[in-house]
Amino acid sequence: MNERILVIEDEPEIREVISYNLSKAGYKVSTAATGEDGLKSAFSQPPELVVLDLMLPGLYGLEVCRQIRSDVRTANVPIIMLTARSEESDIISGLEVGANDYITKPFSPRVLVARIRAQLREKMDDSKNAQKKINLKRISIDRGRHSVEVDGKPVILTPTEFKLLWLLARNPGLVFSRYEIVNSVRGEDAIVTDRSVDVQIVGLRKKLGSCADSIETVRGVGYRLRT
Questions:
Q1: What are the C-alpha distances in Å from 27 to residues 6, 14, 23, 226?
Q2: Does 155 score more than 60 pLDDT?
Q3: Which of the residue ranges 4-13, 142-151, 205-214 would you say has the lowest mean pLDDT?
Q4: 168-192 burial, b if ≥16 CB within 10 A, otherwise e?
Q5: What does the alpha-carbon distance between residue 171 and residue 218 come to, in Å, rounded to a whole number?
Q6: Which domains, from first to last, does the chain contain?
Q7: What angle do CA 14, 80, 97 make, to 5 degrees?
Q8: For the chain, is the Cβ count within 10 Å smaller at the N or the C terminus?
Q9: pTM of the model
């Protein structure tokens, strides 16, 4: 196990606890105390996963997440947000800008390590399915490259938006409830709500542009992809 984990956390004690437990679990660990230093580290040597505090001095955690997602070097790196903010609005904001998971403080180091392993396993599973593609009338999806094109033009999606689109595109015409979307896209143990699914749908439609109406709302039931 040689995966490198980047920990962006401003509190020295918490940073030390995380580093110790990740090193003990066999991971290589890099740390940063500010969002700016975290971005420099991520872009100069992209890690396999980022553990990101939300309340950082200077550049806020949400902006750090947004910049990691928008750069081609790190767009597919899993991000786990670790923060004391536990309001539903904070969780939704984190997921909306591209976080893969969200853990609140105080936290169990064993749970954090388990969540990291789960994200890395999922990333590995995705790479094994690199040959899988879906070509619709105007939308093309390449799971291996984690890329989407609308009318031949690239569209940058967050990991959750990509999973959601893949789920719908893999089953065109089939209606998925919010509960089914949560379980299929994020897993049964993820911290999500019905509202966060709606937020992801809104963001996905916006990025699909002229193909936004391909995702149809079925009132009282859920969503489906119309082809």
A1: 10, 17, 5, 43
A2: yes
A3: 142-151
A4: bbeeeeeebebeebbebbbeeebeb
A5: 15
A6: 4-127 (3.40.50.2300), 129-225 (1.10.10.10)
A7: 125
A8: N
A9: 0.61
Q: Which has more confidence, 92 or 164? A: 164
Residue with the larger pLDDT of the pair 135 and 92:
135
Read off the pLDDT of each residue in 167-180 and give the average, rounded to a whole number.
Answer: 86
d(CA 225, CA 227): 6
Q: Which structure tokens are listed for 161?
A: 């938006």
What is the token pair recorded at 193? Answer: 């709500």
In whole angstroms, what is the distance from residue 192 CA to residue 199 CA?
11
Residue written as token pair 């879906």: 134
Task: Locate 202 and state its tokens.
Answer: 């809104």
